[in-house]
Specification:
The protein is α/β, with parallel strands linked by helices. The chain folds into 2 domains: about 130 residues, Peptidoglycan recognition protein-like (Lysozyme-like); about 50 residues, no CATH class. The protein has 8 helices and 7 strands. Strands 3-2-6-1-7 form a 5-stranded mixed β-sheet. Strands 4-5 form a two-stranded antiparallel ribbon. Strand 4 and strand 5 form a beta hairpin. The longest helix has 17 residues. The protein is globular, with a radius of gyration of 16 Å. Belongs to the N-acetylmuramoyl-L-alanine amidase 2 family. InterPro entries: Amidase/PGRP_sf, Amidase_domain, NAMLAA_amidase_2, PGBD-like_sf, PGBDSf. Its EC number is 3.5.1.28.
């Protein structure tokens, strides 16, 4: 089927070489289309027209099994298990250039540029709270809300409805979904709570996502 999702990951291994070796190992049964090293080097492992095995059990905006319809980019970073650290500027520039090229070749909407933690919030945290989603959006990759306000009168039911409207899987526990949302959109505070600032951000982000059929 046509590619309509761009999915970003971190490698979560101790080195880029170890990650590439695993992604090339048939026994591992895991793969990605691209790997971006910390120095900005880009490796293509799977042609874009072929399916790669990077998403796992995944759901976004009413679609499941996202390996069938997505391009996956693994961004070298040790991840939360091995000493998570900020992504270098050269690496982020290479990611941005790679994403812009992919977006030019496939009909991927801005709201379908997502992280692994967005599509599998019960299993994944990547690319994590250090990833510069705002910088990517400023350069034409994905979305970022402009100056959202707070929503002091909001409720948990409001939060659940907004998360579902954005595209998160609606049947998972609310604190887990809120943590995934905050990891991407409010990285300074990932606590899974529907406070006024998070609710304001939810409303601002939901306004950037058009309705879809659940």
């Amino acid at each position: 089927m046509p590619v309509d999702i761009l999915l970003l990951h971190y490698t979560g291994m101790q080195s880029g070489a170890a990650a590439i070796a695993r992604l090339r190992d048939p026994e591992a049964r895991v793969s990605s289309h691209y790997v971006v090293e910390e120095d900005g080097a880009v490796f293509r492992l799977v042609p874009e027209e072929r399916r790669a095995w990077h998403a796992g059990i995944s759901h976004w905006r009413g679609r499941s099994g996202l390996n069938d319809r997505s391009i996956g980019i693994e961004i070298v970073n040790p991840g939360h298990e091995w000493g998570y650290r900020p992504f270098p500027a050269l690496q982020m520039a290479a990611v941005c250039d790679l994403c812009l090229g992919i977006l030019g070749r496939h009909p991927i909407a801005a709201w379908d540029v997502v992280g692994h933690s967005d599509v599998a919030p019960d299993r994944k945290q990547d690319p994590g709270e250090f990833f510069d989603w705002q910088g990517l959006a400023a350069n034409g990759v994905g979305l970022w809300p402009a100056a959202p306000g707070s929503a002091p009168g909001g409720t948990e039911a409001d939060a659940a409805a907004l998360l579902a409207a954005i595209g998160y899987r609606p049947d998972l526990p609310l604190p887990l979904l809120l943590s995934a949302f905050q990891r991407r959109w409010r990285p300074a505070r990932v606590d899974g709570l529907a406070d006024a600032e998070t609710l304001g951000l939810l409303a601002a982000v939901a306004a950037l996502h058009p309705p879809f059929g659940h």
